[in-house]
């Protein structure tokens, strides 16, 4: 799945979680997923902990982090 398709799984809405990037349709922050992975959890363990997520959601969080690390900002379509 190309990065752009993965990034479609991320939303930013000022009315949801204070505008923090979240997995679309959920109140699960991208940063939370990244923190769990950084703490050593596997993708499978993250999915076990948050069964409403799918594997591409975790990959989307990683794609988002990669884009931010290069440019410091990621343009996303806002949640409608």
Give your account of this protein's structure.
- It is a single chain.
- The protein has a single domain, classed as Winged helix-like DNA-binding domain superfamily/Winged helix DNA-binding domain (Arc Repressor Mutant, subunit A).
- Helices cover 48% and strands 5% of the residues.
- It contains four helices and two strands; from the N terminus they run αββααα.
- It has helices at 3-7, 30-38, 43-49, 55-71, and strands spanning 10-11, 22-23.
- Strands 1-2 form a two-stranded antiparallel sheet.
- Helix 2 (30-38) packs across helix 4 (55-71).
- The longest helix is centred in the C-terminal third of the chain and has 17 residues, at 55-71.
- The protein is globular.
The helical percent reads 40-55%
| Overall 3D shape | globular
**Could you give the distance between the termini?**
23 Å
What is the CATH H-level superfamily?
Winged helix-like DNA-binding domain superfamily/Winged helix DNA-binding domain
* Estimated radius of gyration: 12 Å
Strand-residue proportion: 5-15%
Number of strands: 2
Uncertain regions spanning at least 5 consecutive residues: none
Task: Give the total of domains.
Answer: 1
What is the string of SSEs from the N terminus onward? Answer: HEEHHH
């Amino acid at each position: 799945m190309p990065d752009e398709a993965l990034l479609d799984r991320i939303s930013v809405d000022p009315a949801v979680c204070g505008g923090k990037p979240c997995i679309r349709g959920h109140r699960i922050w991208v940063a939370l997923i990244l923190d769990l992975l950084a703490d050593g959890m596997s993708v499978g363990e993250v999915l076990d902990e948050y069964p409403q997520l799918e594997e591409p959601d975790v990959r989307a969080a990683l794609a988002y982090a990669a884009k931010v690390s290069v440019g410091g900002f990621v343009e996303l379509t806002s949640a409608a």
